[in-house]
Write a structure and sequence with these properties.
By secondary structure, the protein is mostly helical. The chain is about 60% helix and about 0% strand.
Length: about 325
Amino acid sequence: MKDFATHEEQLEILEKRGLKITDKIAATRILSRENYYALIDGYKEPFLEHDIQVNPYGLERYQKETEFNHIYALHRFDRDLRMLVLNELLKFEKNIKSKLAYRFSEKFKEAGSFLEPGNYSEDNQYHHERDRIISTLANLIKSHKKRDKVRYPAIREFYDKHKDVPLWVLVNFLSLGQITHFYTVIDEQLREQIASDFAQEYSEQYESMTLKATELDAILRIVFPYRNKSAHEEILYRYHLTHPIELDALETRLKMDKGSLSGATVFSLLSLVKLTSTKGDYDQFSQKLSQLIQELEASVQTRAFTKIMKDAGFNR
């Protein structure tokens, strides 16, 4: 177990490992706000010296001329990247919720149709997840009939006024994980229709494209963990899925390099944003992302910047 160390002692340890600290007062303030573990242990890797000729014993040593501010610059870059990505993924989340509720309600117009098992896929392998979704929706309605301990007042207000809560209201209170499962368990015609809706939006703004339901499944499986990483202040720039998710056919149809969408890196995720955003939003997103990358490049050494971009999947 490591002994407690003051901020001053932590800085001394970093200096002994070769890290330059030009302003110790400012560095102490940063450590008091950001936490040593989250800042240093989270973002030190691109700045460590792994060349065995320079560091033959594999000690934790920093590359020559590495400064405390370089690590902090990467930390700030990752925080800004999380906020930028989260903003776009929340738009995608809203988009698929809207499409799912609209198409399901269009096909099954009866009140409470989303509580009927027969309105979902007939495939037995999805019945357990179907029942969980139905139970979640039913509990949302049931819990808001109570007069106290109401979690979502908006649902109760709607119920009090209409004595019913439709799907297009309830979907707003489902998590992206629940929406992902919901999309999985609806019937195949609806799944394909929703995927086609996304393809049509893209085609109207760029070039003609088709999107299969299984490909939208894959996009959701990629987006979900990145959305959670972004929302929970976890390290994002070097996060990657354990295994790439197959989107080779979509990459081919869009004339994109292999791995651009399915490479399981941050770069893959950012490429997917174009498929699920409006052109105006995507252009603005791209501009902000380019600015973030330029600011990082100006703030760290070339060697570290190259490693960071490689970790993020930008070395294509």
